[in-house]
Every structure is written in structure tokens, then in C-alpha cells.
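Researcher: Quick test of sequence recovery. C-alpha cells follow.
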């Protein structure tokens, strides 16, 4: 069963496509959080960022980089929130990696990404050192 986004790629279901190249496609979100809310998607199906090959990741970022200013200009936004819900526990609903570009406006009161969390977590220095080392050794 292909994902809803693959069906958009194949033209099987309609979408307001705003950009397309060989490996990526971008279209307006069907339930926009703000005017101009756009999803950027690799045409091939990868469930999470973790599964995206390097060359496709490069293409995906190039499309995000190209569209972010285009979207801001098109809807006269003051800024954008650019984010991936990467995995079910992070709220990802469609199992086909996608980047949300959400236009932001002065006074829209949506807050920063930080507002999705309760606030900073107090983590002891030695634990932070261990975490940094664990990440560095895998990067
Ligand atoms: P997620 O929660 O997986 O990060 O976001 C999925 C997004 O896909 C949601 O913002 C939702 O509105 C959008 N979406 C779901 N189905 C469709 C669809 O059929 N067409 C479009 N254009 N967007 C969709």
C-alpha cells in the first residue's frame, strides 16, 4: 500500500503542487496551520529522515532552501517554522518523510518549537558529557 503522498506523486489524488523536480515534490498541506503551509517530500517513499539516502537528503534540503523564501514572499510572512515530525512518537502521522514549512506572522501567538515541550529539562553535566560523546561517536 503506497502512502497518501506517493499517491500525490503519482497524480492519483489531487494536490496543489507548488514545486517538483526529479526527486522531490512540494504541495500545500490539506489542513494548513497558516496560509502557505507547504509540505516538501522526497518522491520515493522513506518512512523517516533516518532512512533517506545522502543524495536524496541533499535534494530535499535544496528544495526546502529554495521554497522557504518563495513561500514567505508569496504570503507576505514575517518568518517560517521549518520542521519534521520524525517518527510516530514525535507526532508523525504520514509514514513518508515530509518537511513542514509553516509561514509565521508577527503576533500569531503560535510560539517557537520549544513550546511543544514543557520547558528545559535539568540534565546533570556528567550526563550531558556522556550524551555528547555518544552522539559524536555515531555522527
Ligand atoms: P505529520 O503529522 O505526519 O507530520 O503531518 C502530516 C500532514 O499531512 C498534516 O499536516 C496533514 O494535514 C497533511 N495531509 C494529510 N493528508 C493529506 C493529503 O491528502 N493532502 C495534503 N495536501 N496534505 C495531507
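Model:
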Amino acid at each position: 500500500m503506497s502512502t497518501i503522498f506517493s499517491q500525490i506523486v503519482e497524480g492519483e489524488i489531487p494536490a496543489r503542487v507548488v514545486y517538483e523536480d526529479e526527486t522531490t515534490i512540494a504541495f500545500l498541506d490539506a489542513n494548513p496551520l497558516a496560509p502557505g503551509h507547504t509540505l516538501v517530500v522526497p518522491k520515493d517513499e522513506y518512512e523517516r529522515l533516518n532512512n533517506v539516502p545522502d543524495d536524496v537528503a541533499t535534494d530535499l534540503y535544496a528544495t526546502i532552501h529554495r521554497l522557504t523564501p518563495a513561500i514567505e514572499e508569496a504570503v507576505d510572512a514575517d518568518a517560517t517554522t521549518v520542521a519534521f515530525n520524525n517518527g510516530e512518537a514525535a507526532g508523525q502521522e504520514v509514514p513518508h518523510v515530509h518537511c513542514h514549512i509553516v509561514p509565521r506572522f508577527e503576533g500569531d501567538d503560535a510560539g517557537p518549537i520549544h513550546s511543544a515541550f514543557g520547558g528545559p529539562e535539568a540534565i546533570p553535566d556528567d550526563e550531558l558529557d556522556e550524551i555528547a560523546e555518544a552522539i559524536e561517536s555515531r555522527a
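The two ends are 33 Å apart (CA to CA).
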